[in-house]
Amino acid sequence: MNRIAEKAIAEFGGFDTWVNNAGVSIFGRCMDVSIPDMKWMFDTNFWGYLSSNIQWIVPLFPYIT
Questions:
Q1: Does this model's pTM top 0.70?
Q2: How far is residue 14's CA from residue 47's CA, in Å, rounded to a whole number?
Q3: What digits encode the pLDDT tens for the residues 4-22?
Q4: Can you give the residue ranges of every domain in the chain?
Q5: Quick one: pLDDT band at residue 39, thresholds 50, 70, 90?
Q6: Segment 44-64, tens digit of pLDDT
Q7: What are the backbone angles phi and psi of residue 23, rounded to the nearest 5°?
Q8: Using CA atoms, how far apart are residues 48 and 3, in angstroms rounded to an integer?
Q9: DSSP one-letter string for 1-65
């Protein structure tokens, strides 16, 4: 993600749009899904979203008043 953001900034001076359309799901009854599987799903959906969005939020800081 860092490399993509850096390339966009170097090539185009920044970016106006960032699409984050990644996520996973687990199908089954809650009691049948293991804790490691729940953690994997949370890590992917929460931390994946957060870490990728930091890439476009930080370059916008100079423009936030």
A1: no
A2: 23
A3: 777 878 898 877 777 777 7
A4: 2-63
A5: very high
A6: 999 888 887 777 777 777 766
A7: 180, 160
A8: 15
A9: -HHHHHHHHHHHSS-S-----------S-GGGS-HHHHHHHHIIIIIHHHHHHHHHHGGGGGG--
